[in-house]
Amino acid sequence: MSLQLLVATLALSLSSLSSLSLLGCNKPAEEAPVVAAAELAAPANVKRVDIAVNDSGFSPSTIELKKGEPVVLRFTRTTKSECLKAIAIPDLKIEKDLPLNTQVEVAITPQKEGKMVLQCWMAMVKATINVVGS
Question: Residue 122 half-sphere exposure, CB side, CA atoms within 13 Å?
Answer without folding.
Answer: 8
